[in-house]
TrEMBL record:
Gene name in the database record: cca
Record's comment describing the protein's domains: Comprises two domains: an N-terminal domain containing the nucleotidyltransferase activity and a C-terminal HD domain associated with both phosphodiesterase and phosphatase activities.
Residue ranges of domain HD in the record: 229-330
Provenance organism: Pelomonas caseinilytica
Stored InterPro entries: CCA_bact, HD/PDEase_dom, HD_domain, NT_sf, PolA_pol_head_dom, PolyA_RNA-bd, tRNA_CCA-adding_enzyme
Catalysis: reaction(s): a tRNA with a 3' CCA end + 2 CTP + ATP = a tRNA with a 3' CCACCA end + 3 diphosphate; a tRNA precursor + 2 CTP + ATP = a tRNA with a 3' CCA end + 3 diphosphate
Name this polypeptide is given: Multifunctional CCA protein
Residues binding ATP, per UniProt: G11, R14, R94, R140, R143
Binding site for Mg(2+): D24, D26
Length: 414
């Protein structure tokens, strides 16, 4: 037997108690030094603090450690890992009580901070005042709220987060970490809860002021029975989750209506030309948090075109062809399909309309399939044979696609 004790900790313990599948297992070793683990065959891999790979399972094992705040932001910590650091001390540095439990090799739960009590009460509660030392924990808590949608945040934890925001801790967050947590929260089962908790904490105004600006802004009740633009956004994001949408679609939906937050008061509740403003603001958000290209590009496309997609059932072949052209649908068919997915979530993210039909999606996909059958090489060759050059060849291709689209439309309408 080694002279140290290994414990399963964190999310694996929490999820087992919740009856959920255990995805990842984290381990902590108490009573060991780096030298002792290395001698026992553990492979060191940690850069910032001692982390090792188990010699048999290859799972990560960390030495029990304490941490001390040394500077602003989530990088500003000094760690101490030593054989005399206890399991309780290691668990005390964790964010939430439900994540601050351990399990020994006999399956006994060690719960010094009331994690099981808070699971029973469905509460997200900070372990200690040290929560305030790491602003990433605000984002992590909001993400957990999106995962465990029936949990509420303890009032004292909300107050602590608000104090952190007021103290400027959120201002020290780096883009990569913000995007990591926001993207993971968007992919949870109820992403609206992430935004709600960030609003509670006062952090949404700091991180996504363009989204914060949507709350309290009215829009026409005939199209939006929920009226409030912010509430509409929450409903759209939950429609994304319900439909199993990928991150690109969910991020695009997050940004699709940002321009409505800048509509002049005298124009309310209408939002004339909000699409152009939304596209610009989506670009602004993506730049701030260094959003990946695929998410950024789809967000701008959805912001600009979602209203046209909604209205496309009233378009003739010429207007539908122009829509396909603007969306670069022939070169980027997968992105075009994601645009339509986002638009369907937008249409259904409305009070009482969650199950409405959305024929625009299948109709435009059918338009794309029909026009994809145009033999571009043959059309181009025929145009060249007639003496066409450059733009004239492009015009010939457009005419061929339009002809196909007209015939396709007539066959549907007949």
């Amino acid at each position: 037997m080694p002279p140290f004790q290994t414990y399963l900790v964190g999310g694996a313990v929490r999820d087992r108690l919740l009856g959920l599948p255990v995805q990842d297992r984290d381990w902590v070793v108490v009573g060991a030094s780096p030298e002792a683990l290395a001698a026992a065959g553990y492979l060191p891999v940690g850069k910032d603090f001692p982390v090792f790979l188990h010699p048999e399972t290859r799972e990560e094992v960390a030495l029990a450690r304490t941490e001390r705040k040394t500077a602003a932001g989530y990088h500003g910590f000094a760690f101490r890992a030593a054989p005399d650091v206890t399991l309780e001390q290691d668990l005390a540095r964790r964010d939430l009580t439900i994540n601050a439990m351990a399990e020994d090799d006999a399956g006994r739960v060690i719960d010094p901070y009331g994690g099981q009590r808070d699971i029973a009460a469905k509460l997200l509660r900070h372990v200690s005042p040290a929560f305030a030392e790491d602003p990433v924990r605000i984002l992590r808590l909001a993400r957990f709220a999106a995962r465990f949608a029936d949990f509420t945040v303890a009032p004292e934890t909300v107050e602590l987060m608000r104090a952190m925001v007021a103290a400027g801790e959120v201002d020290a967050l780096v883009p990569e970490r913000v995007w990591q947590e926001l993207s993971r929260g968007l992919m949870e089962g109820k992403p609206s809860r992430m935004l709600e908790v960030l609003r509670q904490a006062g952090a949404l105004q700091k991180l996504l002021p363009e989204v914060e600006a949507l709350f309290g802004v009215p829009q026409p009740e005939a199209h939006h029975p929920e009226v409030d633009t912010g509430i509409h956004l929450l409903m759209v994001l939950d429609q994304c989750a319900a439909s199993g949408a990928p991150l690109t679609v969910r991020y695009a939906c997050l940004c699709h209506d940002l321009g409505k937050g800048t509509t002049r008061k005298e124009e309310l509740p209408r939002h004339i030309a909000h699409e152009t403003r939304s596209e610009k603001l989506a670009r602004q958000v993506s730049a701030r948090w260094k959003v990946p290209t695929d998410c950024r590009e789809l967000a701008e496309l959805v912001a600009r075109e979602h209203t046209h997609v909604h209205q496309s059932t009233g378009f003739g072949p010429e207007a539908r062809l122009r829509l396909l052209e603007r969306c670069d649908a022939w070169r980027r068919p997968d992105r075009f399909a994601e645009l339509l997915w986002a638009c369907e979530c937008d249409a259904r993210g409305r009070l009482g309309l969650e199950r409405r039909d959305y024929p625009q999606r299948e109709r435009l996909l059918a338009d794309l399939r029909a026009t994809q059958d145009v033999d571009l090489a043959a059309v181009s060759a025929a145009a060249v044979a007639r003496g066409a050059k450059g733009p004239e060849i492009g015009a010939a291709i457009k005419a061929a696609r339009l002809g196909v689209l007209r015939s396709f439309t007539e066959s549907l309408d007949s």
